[in-house]
Design brief:
Chain lengths: 188, 585
């Protein structure tokens, strides 16, 4: 394999991303197994009152993934203006999701559900905060690319960065659906 | 994510001091930074162990030094049990994480993986730099525990709850000291994950032309397998660490059961499971043993072949053995928990899987012996340490089969038998491999030779020393000597072992002192050693095709073309007794 071959950087970026995703899966896998064991260890498990806002946030995150895909298509077609619109929309929706999650935590606090109230609430806060932290990392990458795009300095070589950020974003969307199922259905 | 280094970088030796030596993105500088950190950590760890050993055999003695260092931990110069436990915790943590995990992978792996596969650098150089500095920060945070109120933690390197989760009430170091421990380990996990991503990507994507996976030196296979194990293991420890931190600081009850009385105080926690932490910890903890030793196995294979002037016996079997060991490492964690009250059926399953590790381990040992069998042995210091590795790997590995039996483990588990076992297999074996690697690669890293006479003396004295320390521990364990105790003097049944413990302590002090020989040899050779040529050992792998030390850009714009496997020694009909990987014939 030629290290200087065209596409080597692109392949390396993707391989690095998939390796990273493996470590994230292991983290949340350990989190899930801890949740299963902890629930079975005692009879103090309670579900959490899931606010409707969670569904709104889920919709926002799904829409941001759609916008990301639209943006990638525009980039492939070389339509920079439409890419900028779609990518900016995705960034905005991503920020909205994080703001929405903060509102969910605030609502739960107002309802008297704290981190240390019971194991269900503890796992909910840990899981959602860990997800939001991963998402915030992805959002920073997304916003950085957005800043470059809006200044028209996003060169053709940045397609790899856009692709890597997009795959990570979709992954976090799927992870959110999984966590939502875990808390809303299995955990209740 | 940092931009990958897929293309040769432009050489710029005009970097300032900070860019060149501290915040360098060059994998060779970063490798040396890891090695330096590890050597420092090793001497801190050794010093702690010597203090512990002296306390065990002279518990009433007054040491002014101790009182100066720890006024609260050694009033009047006599070590308190709490101080003993804090030294034990810090010794274990420093040695396992900052020596055994750091030097084989972060140190030698960083330096030599790109060179051996013909790459310009690691795949993500800035991530590599970040990984080192996160490891460094983790070490600083851990050592800070010595200087906070209450001192260093007492819970051992395994940090079992409930005592690690309830705070200062469980002992002086269980307050801020234990919190710093958890933070340090969390940082270490993040650093190791960054490193693992870099190693995996580099191995898969940056190999030079002709360097197929089955032409890679076994060192590269060791680093690659270790990176895969790290990728799957450290995330789990990180999750356990986060939950432990929340139990300590946020009042949650992940690991804390109801009705817990500590120092006459009833805690409000309820419903948690201390065993849950053990599962999370050992799901990481057992693979960690292989994270430490697999790079050493790769280095030893290469060194045995080089100094036997023979190809590695069963090259493919060696790769399979490493991969199988890597896989099995994730399904044997329960053997650390036989006495935790787990179902006997689980114990049988974990026991069977544990002894299965003996199969790939035996394949490796057989192949090492096959490699040197009938070879033209050159007993350099590197070779001696590689042979020493095989010796301690066998000695330490065989007792693992004993501890893998639940019935026997229920007796041995909390005794010195376990201390002797894991020091031999994890500590000494890995350190011997690191010594072998140091003597082998020092000429490449520095362009100078280490002193062979001093090296041989260091080897023989260390070899005798480690056997004198750790084999008697097995006998103490058979006699029922408990571990993690600060003082045996009050137990009549251990009185007969006092000579054995004294001998162990003196052997430990002797072996620790001998390591100063190595330090002297290393530093003296760094500045004054005789110049080394490009390939002083007549080795075959790609790093030996470069000047010593290699230029910053490694192979520059001419990545080598590989034509053959990594161990072509003593080829029939060849003009010399070895062919390098890039040579056509």
């Amino acid at each position: 394999m030629n290290v200087a071959a065209p596409g080597a950087r692109r392949r390396a970026s993707h391989t690095g991303l998939y390796a990273f995703l493996c470590s994230v899966i292991m983290f949340f896998g350990a989190f899930t197994s801890a949740m299963v064991v902890r629930r079975g260890a005692s009879n103090d498990w309670k579900g959490i009152p899931a606010p409707d806002l969670l569904w709104v946030n889920t919709g926002i995150l799904a829409l941001s993934s759609v916008a990301v895909e639209k943006a990638r298509r525009h980039l492939r077609e070389g339509n920079r203006k439409n890419f900028n619109i779609a990518w900016s929309t995705a960034s905005l929706l991503g920020a909205l999701f994080i703001a929405g999650q903060i509102l969910v935590w605030k609502d739960l606090r107002a309802a008297g559900v704290f981190l240390n109230s019971h194991p269900g609430s503890a796992f909910f806060y840990v899981g959602t905060v860990a997800h939001a932290a991963h998402l915030a990392g992805g959002w920073i990458a997304m916003a950085f690319l957005n800043w470059q795009a809006l200044r028209w300095t996003l060169g053709p070589g940045k397609r790899t960065a856009v692709d890597v950020a997009s795959i990570y974003w979709h992954f976090l969307g799927l992870l959110w659906v999984y966590l939502l199922w875990l808390f809303r259905f299995w955990g209740n | 994510m940092a931009a990958p280094a897929g293309r040769p970088k432009v050489t710029n030796m005009n970097h300032g001091f900070l860019r060149r030596y501290l915040f360098s993105t060059d994998h060779k500088t970063i490798g040396l930074q890891y090695i330096t950190l590890s050597i420092f950590a090793a001497f801190v760890g050794i010093a702690l162990s010597v203090l512990m050993r002296f306390h065990l055999v002279y518990p009433e003695s007054r040491w002014r030094l101790l009182e100066t260092l720890w006024p609260d931990g050694a009033p009047g110069g006599v070590m308190t049990p709490e101080l003993y436990l804090s030294l034990m915790t810090m010794h274990g943590t420093i040695m396992v994480f900052f020596l055994l995990t750091t030097v084989p992978q972060g140190g030698f792996g960083n330096y030599f993986l790109p060179l051996q596969i013909g790459a310009a650098d690691m795949a993500f150089p800035r991530l590599n730099m970040l990984s080192f500095w996160t490891t460094f920060l983790s070490f600083v945070v851990l050592c800070a525990a010595f200087f906070v109120e209450g001192g260093a933690p007492l819970a051992g390197w395994t940090a079992y709850p409930p005592l690690s989760a309830v705070g200062q009430i469980a002992g002086p170091g269980q307050g801020l000291g234990q919190t710093l421990w958890v933070l340090s380990i969390a940082l270490f996990c993040i650093a190791s994950l960054m490193g693992a991503i870099n190693f995996i990507t580099t191995t898969l994507e940056l190999r030079t032309r002709g360097m197929s996976l089955l032409r890679m030196p076994l060192t590269c296979w060791g680093w690659f397998t270790t990176a895969i194990i790290s990728l799957f293991a450290f995330g789990v420890l990180l999750a356990g660490g986060v939950l432990l931190l929340l139990d300590r600081e946020a009042g949650t009850s992940f690991f804390l059961p109801a009705g817990l009385m500590i120092n006459d105080k009833l805690l409000a926690n309820k419903g948690g499971s201390p065993l849950l932490f053990q599962h999370l910890f050992w799901f990481f903890g057992h693979p960690e043993v292989y994270i430490a030793i697999l790079p050493g196995m790769g280095a030893v294979s290469t060194i045995l072949a080089t100094f036997s002037r023979k190809p590695v016996f069963g090259y493919r079997a060696m790769i399979w053995a490493m991969l199988i060991i890597g896989f099995l490492s994730f399904v044997v964690w329960g053997h650390h928990m036989f006495i935790s009250g787990m179902s006997p059926y689980s114990s049988i399953a974990f026991s069977l899987l544990t002894v299965t590790v003996g199969v790939p381990s035996a394949i490796k040992t057989f192949n090492w012996l096959g490699t040197i069998w009938g070879g033209s042995l050159r007993l350099t210091t590197a070779m001696l340490f590689a042979l020493g590795f095989v010796s301690v790997f066998i000695s330490g590995g065989l007792t693992g089969l004993i501890l893998g039996q639940p019935a026997l483990d229920s007796y041995f588990h909390d005794t010195y038998f376990v201390v002797g076992h894991f020091h031999m297999i994890m500590g000494v074996a890995t350190v011997f491999a690191a010594f072998a690697a140091t003597f082998y690669w020092f000429p490449k890293m520095r362009g100078r030779m280490m002193n062979e006479t001093l090296g041989r003396i260091h080897f023989y004295l260390t070899f005798i020393g480690v056997y004198a320390i750790f084999i008697p521990m097995h006998f103490a364990g058979i006699a029922g000597n408990p571990r993690r105790y600060a003082d045996f003097a009050q137990f009549d049944f251990l009185k007969d072992l006092s000579f054995l413990h004294k001998a162990t302590t003196h052997a430990a002090f002797f072996t620790a002192a001998v390591q100063l020989l190595f330090l002297f040899n290393f530093l003296w050779s760094w500045w004054k050693g005789p110049k080394a040529g490009q390939n002083p050992w007549h080795a075959t792998t790609l790093e030996w095709t470069l000047p010593s030390p290699p230029p910053e850009e490694n192979f520059g714009h001419n990545p080598p073309q590989v034509h053959r496997g990594p161990y072509d020694y003593s080829l029939p009909g060849a003009p010399k007794d070895f062919l390098m990987q890039q040579e056509e014939r």
